Amino acid sequence: MSATGYTTPDSQLESVVPVHPTSERRPHAITVQSENTSYSDDFITAKFVNRGSSVNIVDGQYIVKPVAQEYELQTQRKVSKTGLMMIGLGGNNGSTLCATILANRHQITWHTKEGIQTPNYIGSLLRASTFSIGADATGQDIHVPVSDLLPMVHPNDLVLGGWDISGVPMDKAMSRSKVLDYDLQRQVAPHMALLGKPLPSIYYPDFIAANQETRADNLIPGDDKQEHLEKIRGDIRKFKQDNQLDRVIVFWTANTERYADIIPGVNDTADNLLNAIKASHAEVSPSTIFAVAAILEGEPFINGAPQNTFVPGAIELAEREKSFIGGDDLKSGQTKLKSVLAEFLVNAGIKPLSIASYNHLGNNDGHNLSSERQFKSKEISKSSVVDDMVNANRLLYKAPEVGEKGVAIGKGEHPDHIVVIKYVPAVGDSKRAIDEYYSEIFCGGRSTINIFNECEDSLLATPLILDLAILAELLTRVQYRKAGEPEFNPLYSVLSLLSYMLKAPLVKPGTEVINSLNRQRNALEAFMKACLGLEGSSDLLLSTRLW
C-alpha cells in the first residue's frame, strides 16, 4: 500500500459497517387515501385549498375577510437523472461536497481519535430532518424523513462536475482545502482523482478580490463575454449529453463578487442584458454570465453567494424562458442562529436594541472577503436577516436600520445591526463567530445575550448545497393549475421555497421577503404536503383541548 492510499480506493470496512440512516435508500412508502389525491404511473395529483385572509384597515379598524383558492398540484413521480455543475468546483465547498458524496457512495469509513466514523448526510434538512404526516391510533405523531415525503434524487446519484478558475485536480483541491480528516482524504482521494480537474472558468478581475489572481490559472481565454456565454452553454450541453442526464443544476459556490451596478439600458431588462453581454459591457459579472447560460439552456441556476447575480434583466429572462432560479447566499451557522434568536426575542415581547455580529474566517472565502467591495456584498446579505421578524412588531416599535461596517447608526427606537468580518488565516476553515444581542425588557430594563460559536464553514455549507440542488430538481417536476383551468403550468421561475437554506432569499419581485426560519420551514412543509393532498402541520391539537 502506498503512502498516499491511492492503491486502496475503498474502505477496508466497506459493507461491514451499516449504512448511516441519513444515507439509506428507502422506497417511497407514503400513500394518501383521499378523494383529494390520485396516483398514476406517472403522477401524484392532489387537490389543495390555499386559505388566507384579506385585511382592510378603515379608521383604525381591521376588517378581515377569509379567502380561499382551490388548486391542483401534479408531481411527476419519475426522478430525473441529475447532474450538479458547480462554479467553484475546486474550492472548499465544491471539493468537500464531492468528497462527501463519494464517501457515501462507496461507504468509506475512516478513523479519528474518536473512533470509526461512518459517512452520512447529517446537516441536510432533507436527509436528516423529519416532517409529521399525522398521528397513529394512539395519538402518537408519526414523523418521516423529509426526503421520503415525495420522490427525490438521492445525493449519491448526483453526477458531479463544474468549473473553477484554479486548475488544481480535485484530489489535490480537497487536500488544499484542509477540511476533511486525513484518513478520509486518503481513502477518497482516488475517487476524487477520477473527477479530473475542473472545466476552465470565467475570470473578470474587477469582480473579485485582487488576492485571487494567483489562483486564476484555468481560464476561458479572451475578453468577449458573448463567447464566454456560448462556451458555458456548450459545457452544460456536453455534460448533460455525455452523462445522459435529464436535468443539470448549475450552482454558484465560487468567490463572492462585488455588487454589480444596476444601469438602465444595460441590465435592467432581459433584452438589454443580452445586448450588454454581446457588447462585453464591464458591468456584466461572471456569475450573471453563468446564470444566463443556465437560463437559456433551461436548467435551474442557484446562487450560493451574496452578490446580486440576479440583476433585473436576469430575472426577466428567467420568467421569459420559464427557467428556474434561486438564491442568494448560503445560510449556515451564525445567520441561522441569529434569525432564530431574533425571532424568539420578538415573539417573547422583548425589544431588540442592537445586534452585533463579528466573524473570524481564515479560508479562501475569508481571504476574498478581506477586500472592501466583496465584503459589502456579504454585509448586505447578513444585515437583512432579521428585518421581517422585527417588522412584525412595527405597530409596537420601529424596525431596524442596516449598519455600515463597524458603525452604529441607532436613531430613536431603531436598533443597530452591525456586521464585521475579519480575515484570520490561522483559523482556516474553522469559522469563529460572536453575536451580541442587546435588548430592552420590562419597565426599561436591559438584557444582553452573548453567543460564541465555532464551526467548519464548508461542513455547514455542503449539506445546504445538496438540499438546494435536490429541492430545485423536485420543483421542476411539480406543476399546478387553478380549479377550472384546463392545463397545468410550471411553478414561478424564482424558487422562493428554497429560502430556508439562504441568507438573502430571492423572491418574486414585489413580494415580501421572509427571513423567519420557522416560517420558511413551515412553508416548505406545507407545500410538500399539499403535493400529497395533506393539510399543513397543525399544532392546535384541538381534540386534546376539548372534553
UniProtKB/TrEMBL annotation:
Its cofactor is NAD(+). GO terms for cellular component: cytoplasm. Residues 1-14 have a biased composition (Polar residues). Pfam families: Inos-1-P_synth, NAD_binding_5. It is found in: Cytoplasm. Its main location: cytoplasm. It is an enzyme of class 5 (isomerase). Homotetramer. This is Inositol-3-phosphate synthase. It comes from Ephemerocybe angulata.
